[in-house]
Design a protein that fits this description.
Layout: E1 2-10, E2 13-20, E3 28-37, H1 40-48, E4 50-51, E5 54-55, E6 60-61, E7 65-73, E8 85-88, E9 91-92, H2 98-101, E10 112-113, E11 130-134, E12 138-140, H3 146-149, H4 152-165, E13 172-176, H5 180-191, E14 196-201, H6 204-213, E15 217-220, H7 227-232, E16 239-244, H8 249-255, E17 259-267, H9 278-283, E18 287-290, H10 297-306, E19 316-321, H11 325-331, E20 340-344
């Protein structure tokens, strides 16, 4: 059995190729992929050849935000059946290492993560017509569209960040970087009971989506570079919790004057950390927290989308067939109009 797949060979070199599929094991599921979202890591792999020290050094099938329909199940599979729509969790921890055994599966020493170049050989991803995955990677999503279901992964990232921040009930929340993860995080923060959510970005398209997801107000930092300082830098700060989702070191550093003493900043995006003001960190007793992927949050994210407790549709701005993946990588760079660009696959 063969499948078409989107294979990245080197920076800027992505091809549609046929790949062999193995047999479906007793605990495995064959899924016909319907939708796949282009994520930041896919963008970095394509345009930069990697992310920091992580380099694409061999051909890799891209994609880890995918959803599809069950085609075949192994003999021991009971969770899903043929015809079920499923969101596919890209995370496949080993279950045996010290971190898996202590409930920290996102730090698994032997993690297999769809579309990741962190390991060698690289872990092939889900941008393909057919994929074989473990039963536990399949989360049923009912009747929602597969495009929505494919948003379960970035939503799970946001949910894990919120879990790391702690209770948001009645809190004032600042979110810098209102791209797909930031916008979905805003929707989840609203459901978590945040009293006020201010979204900050450089692009109006992102801010429009953030408001649809539940932000109470927005700030375009390009047009109003001093708005945060003049409106929210009162006394020793205004916000209880800040989520830095842009990956900008400057944005992370600029957050400290805006956070109240003993407040929390969660670094969702990755930066050098060079802009962290340690005097403010210490003097205001601010908690600076990292967040990495997710584990138990993925099935929760899939259920939230399946039940439309969180409507992911406002972040989906374009869908192209897999044959136009090169065009999709060009399109996704246009942040003035685009949020989540997705690929569709053969029915």
């Amino acid at each position: 059995m063969k499948t078409r797949a989107c294979v990245l060979h080197a920076m800027g070199d992505v091809r549609i190729e046929e790949r062999e599929l193995g047999a479906v094991g007793p605990d495995q599921v064959l899924v016909r992929v319907g939708a796949g979202g282009i994520c930041g890591s896919d963008i970095h792999y394509f345009w930069d050849g990697g992310i920091g020290a992580i380099r694409v050094s061999e051909p890799i099938i891209l994609g880890h935000e995918v959803a599809g329909t069950v085609e075949t199940t192994g003999a021991k599979v009971t969770k899903v059946k043929r015809g079920d729509k499923v969101a596919l969790c890209p995370s496949h921890p080993c279950g045996q290492c010290q971190f898996c055994q202590s409930g920290q599966q996102q730090h698994c020493l032997n993690m297999q993560f769809l579309g990741s170049a962190m390991r060698k050989p690289h872990c092939d991803g889900g941008f393909r017509d057919l994929i074989i995955v473990g039963e536990m990677q399949c989360e049923p999503v009912g009747d929602v569209g597969l495009d929505e279901a494919a948003c379960a992964e970035p939503l799970a990232v946001g949910l894990h960040a919120i879990n790391n921040a702690g209770n948001l009930l009645g809190k004032r929340v600042l979110v810098t970087g209102a791209g797909p993860i930031g916008a979905l995080l805003i929707g989840a923060a609203k459901l978590a009971g945040a009293q006020e959510i201010v979204a900050v970005d450089l692009a109006d398209a992102a801010l429009t989506a953030a408001l649809k997801m539940g932000a109470t107000s927005s700030v375009n930092a390009q047009r109003e570079p001093d708005r945060l300082k003049t409106s929210y830098s009162t006394d020793k700060g205004y916000f209880d919790v800040g989520f830095e989702c842009s990956g900008s070191g400057v944005a992370l550093g600029d957050m400290f004057p805006l956070i109240r003493p003993r407040g929390t900043i969660v670094a969702v995006g990755v930066s050098s950390g060079a802009h962290i003001p340690f005097n403010a960190l210490v003097g205001k007793e601010i908690k600076l927290v990292g967040t990495h992927r997710f584990h138990e949050e993925y099935p929760i994210a899939a259920r939230m989308i399946a039940q439309r407790r969180l409507d992911a549709r406002p972040i989906i701005t374009a869908t192209l067939p897999m044959e136009r993946i090169r065009e999709a990588f060009d399109l996704v760079r246009d942040r003035s109009s685009q949020m989540k660009v997705q690929l569709s696959f053969a029915p």
